[in-house]
Amino acid sequence: MDELKNQLHSYLTASREAVLWKAEALSDYHLSRPLVPSGSNILGIIQHLACVEFGYFVECFGQQANEPLLTQIDGSDDMDADMWVPTHIPTDEILQFYRRAISRANENILALDLDAPATVSWWAEEKRNTTLGRLLIHMNVETARHAGQMDIIRELVDGSIGDRKISPNLPPHDSQGWVTLLQKIQKAADSR
Question: If pLDDT is split at 50, 70 and 90, which confidence band does 171 have?
């Protein structure tokens, strides 16, 4: 079981690193700018992930997060409050909020067994009693999904692509290689 927990935690850590990397070297404007009709934006996604890390890995184990920003978001009348950041909240505050969430989550992940009981009050009653193992799976999917959204947003902002800074997991194309690939794919689509 320890090996499985280590693997789940390792994959989650890699996705968290990807999330933070997608925010590197962007202006406040580009971090908070929505580039898709749903309003998804890099800074809002990071804030959302901080909230769910505190929720699933702290509060679901009966502990208090003691985070003023989380309390403010949870108490907001705006049902989308966790997905966008008001201008009075500095970017660095959101990045630190996410890092604190990761740190608190890691404390429980490392201390608890996979079968440690948790209660997710916002899930359907028949599903809300769960375990750390189930929450690790859930957060792996959640974080990877949002990291993928951030991939697309970042590419739209400045053309940056790749899985992670240390391992982009992409073919070694130069700029002309990417143009050629795009043209080939567009030609195939146009022929359908």
Answer: confident
Dihedral angle of Cα 90, 94, 99, 102, to the nearest 10 degrees: 170
| Residue that is written with structure tokens 């970042």 in the block | 154
Q: How many other CB atoms sit within 10 Å of the CB of residue 185? A: 10
C-alpha 145: how far from its chain's center? Answer: 7
Question: In angstroms, rounded to a whole number, what is the distance separating the alpha carbons of residues 138 and 145?
Answer: 11
Among all chains, which residue has been given the structure tokens 């009348």? 77
List Cβ neighbours of 45 (8 Å cut-off, separation of 6 or more). Answer: 19, 83, 146, 149, 150
The CA distance from 78 to 128, in Å, is 24
Residues in CB range of 35: below 8 A, 6 or more apart: 41, 153, 156, 157
Does residue 159 register a pLDDT over 80?
yes
Q: Is the pLDDT assigned to residue 66 strictly greater than 70?
A: yes
Burial of residue 111, with CB atoms counted within 10 A of its CB: 0-12 exposed, 13-18 middle, 19 or more buried: exposed
Does an H or E element contain 36, and which?
none
How many angstroms separate the CA atoms of 94 and 48, rounded? 10
Identify whether the C-beta of residue 96 lies closer than 8 Å to the C-beta of residue 85.
Answer: no
Q: What is the pTM of this model?
A: 0.93
80 CB neighbour count, 10 Å cutoff = 11
pLDDT over 90 percentage in the chain: 87
